[in-house]
Design goal:
The complex is a heterodimer of chains A (252) and B (395). With 252 residues, chain A is of the alpha/beta class. Chain A contains eight helices and ten strands. The longest helix of chain A is centred in the C-terminal third of the chain and has 18 residues. Chain B starts with a helix and ends with a helix. The chains are: A alpha/beta (252), B mainly alpha (395). Chains A and B meet through helix 2 and helix 3 of A and helix 11 and helix 15 of B.
Chain lengths: 252, 395
């Protein structure tokens, strides 16, 4: 078993995964450096979500290795994997997936409460993030009374409040309109940069969602195109030269 | 027929549920047929036979309620199912539910008829042939129309109850927290008032009615209609309805009690879920409480009476009582299972967040414990209070 490179916080080699025999990942190798924001892109069914699941320890690859900070995720037991996920990882899904019975702040504070934090601490952290995401005034409302864009922000606050080392976002802007999409993605990436959080996100298409139109710079550091469960390093993209390089440029 | 095909291709667990509904309907049908048999055997005693037939309404209602609870579990309201995509939407779903309950009920009724005919005698060398011929009027010809009507009654009522349950479910769909709270709490004052009225009616009926010795003081089960029984029965019925109405409110209060103050993850998840699901879990729990308090009152009354127990509890009464208790318990369990199945996505989300399974189990256990701690004393209190006036009269 080869040791992972020292400078990668998350490292995967030769990942294979199949759902009841249907192959989803077919040998993916990927390294993510600390505080890097990586976007995994590809069409529906290309294995993005499965890759994220394997990297975050939600799925166990049928073949291959996943290392996080020197810990082999692929060989951990279920309980320790759950604990690691709870303590070090954050997750944002393509749907908000909030607990309908809890208010917005309770939802945002839930991961902290689950780790055994005191109610006061969890509440303060939840309120802080809700305020930062401009939904502080919705804190006492339930998910059913919120707009979809507000719900997704609550989900983002929930993922960021415990201060994770790595944040996984599976098409975090899928349920939003174009304007909200841009804003949510910008909030997410700027929060991650200011707090030194590593982010692995997925998006259906590489260019439009990740380029900050106002500044022309890219929100993400690196693009990993995926097709049919394989990495395509030289993926042909139907975008212009300038847009393509902007989307995937290694801007610091 | 779609309902038949769905039953044929169902999974074992679903089939088992359907089978238990069929059994419940079979027992209810058998009790109805037994009342008919009693009527045939005692043509002079038509009043007594009618009272027996009326008593059959209780197991009938219990079987229908169970059928409705099962039908509710088989139609997922929130996510569009494969049936919805195929064209069986919210409008046709009640019809489908009624159809599949009717199919199950027809099976149950056929079973009841077979057992009835067997016990009545005349089928040959099978075991228990004619074992109860004298009670069931074995020597007289069976009126086919009456048998058919009675056998169709239970499946028809059960099918109607299923359709109504599924329809009201499709309408409510996902409701907000405020609506859930309002729906749960609105029944509580009515329930409390009705229960109190019922107990008072029992007490007053007992006081005003003349006590004709030890025997008459006992409620005949099923017995004559003279004297106090109608008023006492009415009082018990009121108290039972009150408990059913108060069930959701009590469950909601339990949820609030759990998440009181500054709850951690365990109490928060446990309490809020109970508050949200108060109506769906509370109604069958209320029925269960009503049945339990009724059983308690009956036990208080007949258990202590000299020679009363043997007289009051014949095999048919015992069968009916067992059916009612089983149906109430099964309905409550079915509702709890349905809630769990419907909350599966939320549970998956919680697990994804890293919630330990032990915590979720702990939350469910806490809910159960608090519900038991609140509902058991209420049930006991109502049961004892309902039996108290009668008890004193006997003593």
């Amino acid at each position: 078993m080869a040791a992972p490179p020292d400078d990668d916080v998350l490292w995967a080699r030769g990942l294979h995964y199949s759902y009841d025999g249907s192959p989803a990942l077919q040998g993916i190798t990927l390294g993510v450096r600390p505080e890097e924001i990586v976007s995994v892109s590809g069409p529906r069914g290309s294995g993005k979500s499965t890759l994220l699941g394997c990297l975050s320890g939600r799925l166990v690859p049928t073949e291959g290795e996943v290392w996080f900070d020197g810990v082999p995720l692929h060989s951990l037991g279920r309980a320790s994997r759950e604990r690691l996920r709870r303590d070090r990882f954050g997750w944002i899904g393509s749907a908000p997936e909030l607990v309908p019975e809890l208010t917005a702040w309770e939802n945002a504070a839930l991961p902290l409460l689950l780790t055994g934090a005191r109610q006061r601490t969890a509440r303060a952290a939840a309120y802080e993030w809700l305020d930062r995401l401009d939904i502080g005034d919705c804190a006492r409302r339930r998910p059913a009374d919120l707009l979809q864009s507000q719900r997704q922000r609550v989900a983002i606050a929930r993922a960021l409040a415990p201060g994770p080392t790595v944040l996984f976002a599976d098409e975090p802007t899928a349920p939003l309109h174009q304007l909200d999409r841009m804003q949510a993605l910008r909030t997410l990436t700027s929060a991650a940069r200011s707090h030194g959080i590593t982010v692995v996100l997925t998006s259906p298409e590489p260019a439009p969602a990740e380029t900050d139109d106002s500044t022309g710079t890219s929100l993400v550091d690196r693009c990993v195109p995926l097709v049919d469960g394989r990495r395509t390093p030289t993926a042909p993209r139907p975008v212009t030269e300038a847009e393509g390089s902007a989307a995937c440029s290694l801007s610091a | 027929m779609l309902a038949l095909r769905l039953v044929r291709g169902a999974r074992p667990w679903t089939l088992l549920r359907r089978l238990s509904v069929a059994c419940a309907i079979a027992v209810a049908g058998f009790l109805l047929l037994s009342a008919l048999g009693y009527g045939l055997a005692h043509p002079r005693d038509s009043g007594d036979a009618s009272v027996r037939l009326l008593w059959c309404l209780v197991p009938l209602a219990a079987a229908a309620q169970f059928a409705a609870a099962v039908a509710r579990t088989e139609t997922p309201p929130r996510q569009p199912s494969a049936l919805d995509t195929a064209g069986v939407g919210a409008a046709r779903l009640p019809l489908l539910a009624a159809g599949s309950t009717a199919v199950t009920g027809a099976f149950g009724s056929a079973l009841a008829l077979l057992v009835f005919l067997q016990l009545r005698g005349g089928s040959g060398r099978l075991p228990f042939d004619g074992a109860a011929a004298d009670v069931l009027g074995g020597d007289r010809p069976l009126p086919a129309a009456a048998v058919l009507t009675l056998l169709c009654l239970t499946p028809a009522v059960a099918a109607g109850a299923s359709a109504l349950a599924v329809r009201s479910r499709a309408r409510t769909g996902s409701r907000t927290t405020e609506a859930a709270r309002a729906a749960a709490m609105s029944g509580l004052p009515w329930g409390a008032a009705l229960t109190a009225t019922g107990i008072t009616v029992v007490a007053l009926a007992r006081r005003s009615a003349p006590v004709k010795g030890g025997d008459a003081a006992l409620l005949p089960l099923p017995g004559t209609v003279d004297g106090s029984p109608p008023a006492v029965l009415g009082g018990w019925l009121l108290a039972a309805v009150g408990l059913v109405l108060a069930g959701p409110g009590l469950a909601h209060l339990c949820g609030r009690l759990i998440s009181l103050g500054r709850p951690g993850a365990l109490r928060l998840l446990s309490g809020r879920v109970l508050q949200q699901e108060a109506v769906r879990v509370g109604r069958p729990l209320g029925v269960l409480c009503a049945v339990a308090s009724g059983a308690l009152a009956a036990a208080e009354l007949y258990g202590t009476a000299p020679d009363g127990g043997a007289r009051a509890f014949g095999p048919l009464t015992a069968l009916g009582a067992a059916l009612v208790v089983c149906c109430a318990t099964a309905s409550a369990l079915t509702a709890a299972t349905a809630c769990r199945a419907e909350r599966a996505p939320v549970t998956a989300t919680l697990l994804r967040l890293g919630a330990p399974r032990g915590l979720l189990r702990g939350a469910a256990a806490l809910r159960g414990a608090v519900l038991l701690a609140v509902l058991a004393p209420v049930t006991w209190g109502v049961g004892v209070l309902a039996a108290l006036p009668l008890h004193q009269a006997v003593g």
